[in-house]
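Data availability (excerpt). All sequences and predicted token strings are deposited with the supplementary files. A representative entry, DNA methylase adenine-specific domain-containing protein, is shown inline so that the format can be inspected without opening the archive.
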Amino acid sequence: MINPFRDLVSTLSSQGVPDAYRTALSLLAETQDGDFSRSSQFSLTEAYCAQTLEATKANLVEVLDWISLSDTARRRGEAMLTPDIAQLLAHLAIEGKHSRAIVLQDPLCLVAARLASAGVHVEQFCPGFEVPKLCAVIANAPAWSVVEPGEDDSQPHERVPTPGAEDGVLIAALPLIPGVSGGAHAKQLPYAASDDLEVTMRRYGAAVARFIVLVPSSMLYRTGKAAEFRRDLLNQGLVEAVLELPNGTTPLATHQYSILVLRSPRSRAVGESVFVMNLPEREAPATRGRGRRVEVESGSAVTARIIDRCADGLDTSRLITYGQILDTGSLLPRMLLGEVGADACNDKGRVALRDVARILRPTALPVGTSRPRVAVTTEGIIRAFPYVRYVELMDDEHAPAKAHEVVIHLEAGDIIIVAKGTVGEVGLVEWSTNEPILLPNSCLVLRANRVADANALYLYFKSPAGIERLRSIVTGSTVRNIRISDLGGLAVPSVSAQARELAESTLKNINEKTAHIQQLDEERAQLLEKSLEEIAKLDS
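Structure token line:
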């Protein structure tokens, strides 16, 4: 029950105290030390402070969760973790039978408090933040210590082996530098995380047996230095599991995050496989944080599967060999489950999309060329069911093309897919165009090798299974997109003769119903217009 702490924060806020939750924690820490000198400044009695301290100590995890959802905590850069993600990280450490934990970059102690309450010995490093020190004092737990960085901590160095290292774990959210989250810093994020992880492993490798780190998903597939670091981790046999958080549950709004579970360099296991998983989501009890309506499933059943490496053999989790990952060039679960899945699922009647369809990218109009008279809009693709409708442009037919505009010749049976922004929306082309038409530059076109397969492919991408499979290959740190190489490797069902017949009849029926609905809409509009005219005549 966190009402006493919330009441204290409300009391301080009503007196104009800025960052009231920090002042409240500070007052309770002083109360724990027997210092009531400041409480009188806010008209608070010693008995009230003592009662609030006991209530807060008994419900510290819930109190910190409540603080983490505040705008003030996010504005100060303290809300780097969310309660559900913190619960998942803590459960992984507990399920892994770790009795000691080193925690980095947990400004509001969401992970540290959970581990300490579970009896895990916590050593927390979070320089530059005051809340960890206050929480450790309030908890008054001998097993929870907050370590202040020394002068030499600015330089990486290796820790000597420590007693109990065989059951120690390090938990961190990377990169360790707050604020590198968006805008001009967006492209730096995966490389900053790679650098910090490399330094962290070198520094604490002798002190723990396992690393559980939250990293930006872009670090798992970016090229250059990030790719070299991934290869080093795989070649050394250090990667144990890669877990991708669901869309909408990330700690930073502009980036997708994943969890890397790594072995310590002293317990490497060359030649093994990696447990890869798309973590399940659940509906949040209420809109949380920045409109979060889903959160990651963090129960002990999920974490037990991860630690025990129990793959379900489906699209959500799998054991993938180091060699397969090196061939793919990515550590991102959605890419691995899609790319490797295309090969692994051949015996299940699936094929890679590139084997049944060509992927076409619209081209830019040559400079000085007149704009086409017809276009397909993104809204038209979203509303298409099944066929896209063309929009006639009202511009002068001799108007020059704009720099960002692209064109393509469409053929009957082409599937237009939105590959950037509103990714995954698809529309089917009913008739071939005899001239180039404008297409949004966020779109790609799938042209089936056999026209008869187009209807079945379209219905697959409109189905829940197809939508989920497209979602599995969405990437992008700031703008969601689908890469052509990932789309080509997507595993799709092999189209049978029965599927072709069923798809053709289904689309025919859908199109007839759609036409009938449009006719009814027009008749309804005409009835309304006519009735309004009759009413106007009566009034006059």
